[in-house]
Amino acid sequence: MLTSDSCLSLHKHGSSMASDSNSSESQRIAQQRLRIIAGHLQKHKDDDSGTIATECKAEANKGTVPRKRQEIMKWNGWGYSDSKFLFNKKGQAEFTGKRYRLSGMVLPSLQDWFENTFGASVNHKSPATPALNASAVPPASLNEAFVEDLKATGIPFSHEAEDRVFRAHGHCLHEIFALREGKKFERVPDMVVWPNCHSDVVKIVELACKHNVCLIPYGGGTSVTSALECPPEETRCIVSLDTSQMNRILWIDEKNLVAHVEAGIIGQDLERLLNESGYCTGHEPDSMEFSSLGGWVATRASGMKKNVYGNIEDLVIHIKVVTPRGVIEKSCQGPRMSTGPDIHHFILGSEGTLGVVTEVTMKIRPIPEYQKYGSVVFPNFEAGVACLREVAKQRCAPASIRLMDNEQFQFGHALKPQVSSIFTNFVEGLKKFYITKFKGFDPHQLVVATLLFEGDRERVLQHEKQVYDIAATFGGLAAGEDNGQRGYILTFVIAYLRDLGMDYYVVAESFETSVPWDRVLDLCRNVKERINRECKERGVQFQPLTSCRVTQTYDAGACVYFYFAFNYRGLADPVHTYERVEHAAREEILANGGSLSHHHGVGKLRKEWMKESISSLGVGMLQSVKDYVDPDNIFGNRNLL
Amino acid sequence: MASKTLYSQRDPMLKRDGFEDILEERRNSSDLKYALRCYAPVLYKGVTPCKANMLKNIVLQSDQLRYVINQVSQESGEAPDIIQEEASVILEEMAHRLQISTVRFFAFALSKAFKTLFQHVCVNEEGIQRLQQAIQEHPVVLLPSHRSYMDFLLMSYILYTYDLALPVIAAGMDFMGMKFVGEMLRMSGAFFIRRSFGGDKLYWAVFSEYVKTMLRNGFAPIEFFLEGTRSRTCKSLTPKLGLLNIVIEPFFKGEVFDVNLVPISISYERILEESLYARELLGVPKPKESTSGLLKARRILSEDYGSIHVYFGQPVSVRSLAQGKVNRSTYNLFPRHIPRKPMEETQSFVNDTAYRIVRLQEDNMVLKPWVLMASLLLQNLEGMELSVLTEQTVWLRGLALSYAAFLDWPDHAPTAKVVSSSLALHRGLACVSGGRVSLVVGEPLGPVTPEEALFNRAVSVLSCASYRNQVLHVFLRPAMLAVAMHTAASSKKSEWPGLYNCFSFLWDMFSNDFILCPGDTVQDFEEACYLLVKTGAVQMPQQDIVMTDIGQPTLSFFNGLLEPFLQGYQVVCRYLCEEASEGLTEKQYIPAVRSFAVKLILAGNLRCYEVLSSDMQKNALAALLRMDAVRKVKVADQVTLIVNKMAVNSIDDILGGKLPTQKALLARL
Known about the structure:
The complex is a heterodimer of chains A (641) and B (669).
Chain A: H1 20-47, H2 51-56, E1 85-87, E2 93-95, E3 106-107, H3 110-118, H4 144-153, E4 157-158, H5 161-166, H6 173-181, E5 191-193, H7 198-211, E6 214-218, E7 238-242, E8 249-253, E9 258-262, H8 267-276, E10 279-280, H9 293-299, H10 306-309, H11 312-315, E11 316-323, E12 326-328, H12 344-347, E13 356-363, E14 365-366, E15 370-378, H13 381-393, E16 400-404, H14 406-414, H15 422-438, E17 447-455, H16 457-473, E18 477-478, H17 480-503, E19 506-516, H18 520-537, E20 545-553, E21 557-567, H19 574-591, H20 610-629
Parallel strand pairs in A: 5-7, 6-7
Antiparallel strand pairs in A: 1-2, 2-3, 4-5, 8-9, 9-13, 10-14, 11-12, 11-13, 15-17, 15-18, 16-17, 16-20, 19-21, 20-21
Helix pairs in contact in A: 3-14, 4-7, 13-16, 18-19
Chain B: E1 20-21, H1 22-28, H2 31-36, H3 52-60, H4 63-76, H5 80-94, H6 100-117, E2 120-123, H7 125-137, E3 140-144, H8 150-161, E4 168-172, H9 179-187, E5 190-193, H10 201-217, E6 222-223, H11 242-252, E7 260-268, H12 274-281, H13 291-296, E8 307-312, E9 316-317, H14 318-322, H15 344-363, H16 369-378, E10 384-385, H17 386-402, H18 415-425, E11 430-433, E12 436-439, H19 450-488, E13 493-495, H20 496-509, H21 521-534, E14 538-539, E15 544-547, H22 552-579, H23 586-602, H24 614-626, E16 630-635, E17 638-643, H25 645-655, H26 662-668
Parallel strand pairs in B: 2-8, 3-6, 3-7, 4-5, 4-6
Antiparallel strand pairs in B: 1-2, 7-8, 7-9, 10-12, 11-12, 13-15, 14-15, 16-17
């Protein structure tokens, strides 16, 4: 649901995500706890001599993610434990906590939307199991020799059930559903290690090779491709290598505008720390609150502002990877090289099958002077797509431009917080009247494009005019900054909303693709229709919600993101039903000229289509790299191939 | 007529609907009111509202057409504007101008005409309901059988009656010759296509884009005849694939979610063109369509043509059919607006689909008792006792029903009455005198030459055959097995492999004459065995097929049923071996075979009149070409037929029941 795309930035204008004061408050608490733990570990560290250990010694860990993630994050849902949607006693939706712009607000229209869209009722609850049942977790099968040697290195590790379970899954529907239901786990990691730096990783990988232990790198844990699932057939000890403590910016090079960063850093920390020096990467996938730099590299992530900053493959200058054969890196930081196929491209998208990304040198930019949201309403989806195509053709896309279909537009509206004054209400009413009555837009057809401009003020305003002029030729009407901003809110709260849905018999998931421009409309229509039809055929009793948006534009095509949710009351095995429908939807995507994935990756969820997607020769090429780099399948998560 | 449900025993899934007579209401209420009533059909949910004129603009400005225009312009050196203009002219000539007022006029006029001509026009209303549902969900293609000019007027009439979206209909250009009428048809939704435009890229592009645009926009259901032309023999014709390819392609290219194909079976108790067809088959060219010709045809109005049954079959989803057969992603790497020859996989899918649809049409053709009687009479050309005919008709009825024939046999009427009223309706074809029933032979005026007499007899045989042909699809497979059994051994016992080879030979031989789905030989063989066993005509202990004692009448009826085809093909073979000169051209072939056959008949060496039918002659030639026994060679402007006499000779032998050595047979198969 959430790996990429974006979430609101932390800059002056973007205030929707963790507001600075709140997040630093919670971080303070978390870090206090961390320091205590670090204190215990210090002893081990001191025993270790040599330069590497010194290098590794973390200056007070500034990271958001503690080793015990469950202390601040949900063990069976999305995000922070203190932030969640719920229907209060009056039946009104609320978002708890203090971290987000919507936090503490009442959302009066959400209940109606929810009940009407899904045929659900706030009186029909399907609550989750409150706590992890330790007996449902298979006992750790440890490789004693490995553990002994690991102890000697002083690298912290754990084999507590809670730590292991937390790293046994990503955020696929079936994974979260199973956690909520308290299902028995088939296979979870046997232990978790927390390296502090590159050389820790080198040691761990060496030991893993020595003792034939299976390593599964774990970054932000936001995978939605079953990439973190432990292969049930794996008989060796499985060690989850949690990179979260490798979270420092090692240096910033202002002359070349690059920063050298440890790959475990999560998006929000990276941006916050760079901001302190006046820079940013501009890489903002929707999951950036939790996803990590290493994870972005390993899955070929895409950020919402890629039009200005580029996708991850455009941003990285240098990658350091620890593999069973040793460390891969390049000899220089030349901005482009003609030295045979780019070895970075073996790493980008390797999904943890070759090694662990430990350090990345990536481009940085000065924080933009000015940011402005915007939105355009179109009479229908066709007009909106035509406009985005024209914008792409003229290569004048703003930092972000997204087109939400009518379903998503209405969804966005359901998330409007209670309006504080009669006046705002009145203005809203006027706007609605103008668009639907005066301009003749059908409220059940109209769609909205959300925009984010960045740069110096004058240029932003110029750029804005250019885009609005193009939009006007396709019947688009400017619809204000507020609507634009709300569109972006939706993308990061949607994951929290899925948890709310699951409390009331609604399952939901998202998936994405990329597709040539001329096929965008056909693909969207056919995939929606396929989902509706499959749901009907598979006995789903209620009309499903199928919604899509065009989230990225390229010269030759676009990225399309689908949401799909349905009320599963009356179904014996909703997850299975869901999976069959998603499978059919993916087949439909491929038949309509869409790709297997734009940025979520393949994991284990979409492996079956790899041959079809890149030819069996292509799979063979990848396999031969894997065989060379990792002959004993130490990185045995079995993703991709 | 009382509605009744006919239930198939062959396939328990094949449950057929009952019928309603739509003329009944017309006989009881005002036609004018009916023609002027409110007409508000449900439309396709994805419809892009557009007028006939806008449609033309969309087509002319489409990427598809623009691409071809540029291509043609580059090849010919003409400016694109000129080619564009040409395209516009083609479109103008082609396009329909569907107008509700014209439709209303037809609704009025046809009501009057139908009431005079027909006793009943029966429609399965459940089929209409299914169609109504389908029209809303997906683009719909209506695929009626084609036996008469009446077909498409009738279709539109029925759809209007049931308040369904009126179709746009692909019609042959020949109608355009009928000045006023052509325009009327155009305004009732017909669009006109040239009969042949093989190499004309531009024409093809305009035509296919025009059809696809209407399909994609959900403008209206698209109607065309898979058989391509009216079947003069009342046998279904092997399907033509051009239009089907066009309407299926938008699905493969992802431009529509699905396309629904609706097979429609239109069965006439008596076809208006009955004797016209027979003459045409005998080489009297069909009259050119002209308005005055149509007016002359008014005398038709004074006759009774019985009932029409129109059966709207279950809509067939192209998406479901293509599941697992065509990989749509093979279309991903090529721009969709560039015309491309369909891939092999696609071609065979479309071919297969076309055959299946035609078989569905056949399955739902309503058969009248007369069809059974005609089959019997043709095996007894010298005439039959009325009582024998009656008795055998009853027997045949039982057989037909157990083979799932869609037989419309009047409820509760005594058999004798059914037989006599059938004879009455078809008094132009058969008569009873002195308790004997025989074919009527038209009385010629003036002195009669032997050739003329023969010709007259042939007209009545071919007319009668057109009724027998209607039931052939029911009996075809077991009948071919019966012939195979007869050929494979005169003993009662036949080994499987030889029998199958023989069956497969016949199957291949006759696949131009009958609807045999490509690749279905084994399945058809099994079906034939199953049906013969089911009716007790044969038993199958282990690997053998043995005729039972009670099976004799069935098997001999089946042998008799296919006899004219076997003989006809043999005559063609014999002609090619014995008479055909070197350098026989394709053009000469039909008259030459005809006069060869006439000679044989006059000499008393042949009693089969059906070989005089150009349809059979063409089909036989096509089969021989397919089997490489004859080759076509183009010399200058002439197409010459080169005969491999050895091969033709041995085919003749097998057809004649002389079983060649196993080896030789296998080599050919």
